[in-house]
Each structure stands twice: as structure tokens, then as C-alpha cells.
Amino acid sequence: MAIVPKRKHSKARRNKRRSNVWKISAPTLAVCKKCGKLKLPHRVCKECGFYNGREVIKKEA
Fold first, then answer.
1. pLDDT tens-digit readout, 29-41
2. Residue 16 to residues 5, 6, 8, 22, 32: CA-CA distances in angstroms?
3. Is the pTM of the predicted complex or chain greater than 0.85?
4. 33, 38, 50, 51: which could join 29 in a potential S-S bond, CB 3.0 to 4.6 Å?
5. In a domain, 56, yes or no
């Protein structure tokens, strides 16, 4: 048999427990080694087209 709570928890108490799930955090950003702009980690830089020291996307100057 399952354990049953002795008293009902209020909606406020329940919502306080669940509130951490809805937090939003700022995205982590990395600095591009080629151009110095901020980019998402493990992604191609949108400014210069380089990833891991190699040109992946051709960008016109």
C-alpha cells in the first residue's frame, strides 16, 4: 500500500515547490576565436563563418 499524506498541502505550498521548473536562464555565450564576437558554444559563428579554427560557411566581406 502507498503512503497517504496526513493533511492536504495548500495550493501556495504546492506552487512554491514547482516554481523552480519555470525559471528562465540567459544562454551561455562563448567568444569566437577568429572575430571576437559572442556566439553560442559548439555552433558556427554567424559573423565570420568559422568553427573550431576552420571556415565552414563562406562569408562575403
1. 999 999 999 999 9
2. 18, 20, 15, 11, 40
3. no
4. 38
5. yes
